[in-house]
Amino acid sequence: MNTSEVNRFNELYERHLKTLKLQGKAQKTIDAYSRAIRRVRDYFDCCPDKLDPEQLEDYFSDLVDSHSWSTVKIDRLGLQHFWKYVLKKEWNWLNIVKPPKVKTIPDILTPGEVEKLIGSTRKLRYRVFLLTTYSMGLRLGEALSLQVRDVDAARKLVHIRRGKGHKDRLIPLPDRTLIGLRELWKRHQHPKLLFPNAKGSLETIQKAKSHMDRGGVQNAMKVVVAECGIKKKSPYTLYDTVLPPIFLKMA
């Protein structure tokens, strides 16, 4: 791209980010929709505002060959947003690409498998995190973002803030999970976070500004799943769906 095109792309790209933010999109959605615009820019080495339907058909044809249908669908939605809200153009996207409708049922671990998974997790923070996630049926982000103020021990409830759809909800808090959360908190005593970033000394952890890393949690679970010999679709890949709460017996 020449300098003029680069400047035009940067201006449109910033507008794309702004519209996503103003529509209240989750950061994960903003990242995905923005990546879609950068991908099509890199493919054609030009600002995508001048692309015609035939070019986009070629683009998606190659994308289907090189990426999953999930990625294709997300990129289509990202480009659709860009055309509608940034370029102010209407487009019949279904005529360009229409991912097949596939209904799948995730593999759900049995209480016994969850017990085995938790029992085999050596680090306390990951063990309590697993217990919290499965006992209350939480998404990965919901569990990671839990704060001390969210736990109502007296009523045995946990306040999930801004879950999927930016909605709050109250979840029953099992006794075993409360015990585990209390034990973990005694170790780090962070004034705000239940699962703070656990890097450095105790003093450093208590001053942590962020929760545990998403990727770190997923990698740790991948190791434990392999050690347990669980052959079902790995739990760490299901964290963005709500799992049925599994109320485990007290140890």
Report on the architecture of this protein.
- By secondary structure, this protein is mainly α.
- The chain folds into two domains: 93 residues, DNA polymerase, domain 1; 127 residues, Intergrase catalytic core (hpI Integrase, Chain A).
- The protein has a three-stranded antiparallel sheet, with no helix packed on it.
- Strand 1 and strand 2 form a beta hairpin.
- The chain starts with a helix and ends in a 23-residue tail after the last helix.
- About 3% of the residues have low confidence.
List the helices and strands and how they pair.
Blueprint lengths: L2 H20 L4 H18 L8 H14 L2 H18 L24 H9 L4 H13 L3 H5 L6 E2 L4 E4 L8 E4 L2 H14 L13 H5 L7 H15 L23
Antiparallel strand pairs: 1-2, 2-3
Task: Summarize it.
The protein has 251 residues and is mainly α.
**Strand content bin:** under 5%
Overall CATH architecture of the largest domain = Orthogonal Bundle
Oligomeric state, counting identical vs distinct chains: single chain
Separation of the first and last Cα atoms:
63 Å
**CATH superfamily membership of the largest domain:** Intergrase catalytic core
Tally of contiguous helical segments: 10
Low-pLDDT stretches are 236-243
